[in-house]
Known about the structure:
Elements: H1 10-13, H2 35-38, H3 60-63, H4 65-100, H5 102-107, H6 109-150, H7 154-182, H8 192-210
Amino acid sequence: RASGGLWExxxxxxxxxxxxxxxxxRASGGLWExxxxxxxxxxxxxxxxxRASGGLWExxxxxxxxxxxxxxxxxxxTAIAGALVGYWARNAWLTSLVISSLDRIExxxxxxxxxxxxxxxxxxxxxxxxxxxxxxxxVFVEYYYRxxxxxxxxxxxxxxxxxxxxxxxxxxxxxxxxxxxSAGLLPLSSGYLxxxxxxxxxxxxxxxxxxxxxxxxx
Length: 218
């Protein structure tokens, strides 16, 4: 033990498939590596050095840490954008419903009462529906991005989810502005917002189409 060195038995050499590795003294330090571990697919191999001599510890999972940080940054961006899209889309659809029933409300007092009850019920239920959809979105996107990173498809999936969110917002605002301008509540020139959303939708759809070239994986 005081001299250190390698230990190896002739008898062990005769055993087929028996793993042989160098065993060095603790005072001298060194590398430990098993042939059997090399045969395990995906098993991380790293140098293990003595505490007295110091050294670096590195594995494949540690190399993926920057990628996983990016996964959860994009996950947070998608979740926040989803909350904003849900809020704006909900307001747009509720306002569109009110605008579409203006003629009926103005002519009949009873219809005005029932329309008020209907609007309150839809307002309460829409909060529940949007909140539930947001919870599902948060859970699904975390899994979707995490597995996409392992497959080298993180950017592709981020661009796809962003395009879907912008598409929902574009449809909601288009319906709202169409009803509002037809009822004379808004001028035609105020419909620039759906055009901006359409431009963003085209941009992210284009990025999604070329995203196979933008690979980021561990």
